[in-house]
Design brief:
The protein is 24% helix and 33% strand.
Length: 289
């Protein structure tokens, strides 16, 4: 089902509104994914999922959740076929697809766009289109409940807590359709574009008992489930996920495909699909063999 959360707010001392859009990457295999993907493409999606926020152009980011991602590709393909459109009209196209789906749970959208010097968030779900909301969530209700519980506890700064709470939910909640990696999109005023936010972090799966005066080990070994990672925005079509303890790296891309069957398949158009790559010393990225 997935989990997407978006919110806009104003930083202290900033003259601009800020937006942050979070998505997970997990895909639950079904008849659709197995039929539409090449064998190697299916294996990669099963292992690494897809990034469910697509930056269509600098002013537009579309995130989606649901049981049938076919409809997300339909929206991306429709926008390509239209050629020229107003970003404010994209939500109407998304709403039409939502209503045409066999079930309202098949596809839901969060549409974020920059227009007239303002950030806008529109939400399509439950047979409704809500325009210009401050925050929106789609996908798993169980994940959202766990997210809100973590986000609102201990009288913390809610905006700062959002990032931590979302990543914790993706790492594990009672809805096993949510998972994989947490990816964040923000609007960068310097570049005038939505971008995938660069992240450098570490994870460990085992608790530690630390005695008074002992050093705290922030990064445990790979054998203990620990790893460090980096998320790198390459451009609006490509995001690189690097795990220090694993080679090769994972490239999520809406431009590159691992197989001609996937490249020629209109049902995969616009999706941020995974590919294993290695980065050479000169910075060149090549497909991993």
């Amino acid at each position: 089902m997935s989990f997407i959360y978006a919110e806009k707010y104003r930083d202290n001392g900033s003259e601009h509104e800020t937006v942050q859009i979070f998505c997970d990457t997990k895909i639950t295999p079904n008849n659709y994914t197995s039929a539409c993907l090449s064998d190697i493409g299916y294996d990669l999606v099963r292992k690494y999922g897809i990034v469910k926020s697509t930056i269509c152009c600098p002013e537009l980011c579309i995130s989606f959740a649901g049981n049938n991602i076919l409809y997300a590709s339909k929206l991306f393909k429709k926008l390509k076929d239209i050629g020229s459109f107003e970003v404010a009209d994209v939500s109407d196209h998304a709403f039409h697809l939502h209503l045409s789906a066999e079930s309202q749970n098949d596809i839901e959208f969060v549409i974020a766009y920059f227009s007239n010097d303002h950030i806008h968030i529109d939400c399509v779900k439950n047979g409704k289109l809500e325009k210009d909301v401050t925050l929106a969530h789609i996908g798993s209700d169980d994940a959202f409940s766990a997210f809100q519980e973590a986000r609102l506890q201990d009288n913390c700064d809610v905006v700062k807590q959002t990032d931590i709470a979302f990543r914790n939910v993706v790492d594990g909640c009672k809805d096993d359709s949510v998972g994989g990696r947490a990816v964040k999109v923000v609007y960068d005023y310097q570049y005038g574009s939505f971008v995938y936010q660069r992240v450098r972090s570490f994870c460990t799966s085992k608790p530690q008992t630390v005695a008074l005066g002992e050093n705290i080990v922030f990064h445990t070994s790979a054998s203990d489930g620990g790893y460090s990672y980096e998320v790198v925005h390459k451009d609006i079509e490509n995001i690189l996920f690097l795990i220090d303890q694993m080679k090769p790296d994972i490239l999520y891309s809406r431009r590159f495909r691992v197989d001609s069957k996937d490249a020629d398949n209109p049902l995969l158009f616009g999706l941020m699909m995974p590919m294993l790559v290695v980065e050479k010393e000169n910075g060149e990225i090549i497909r991993y063999q």
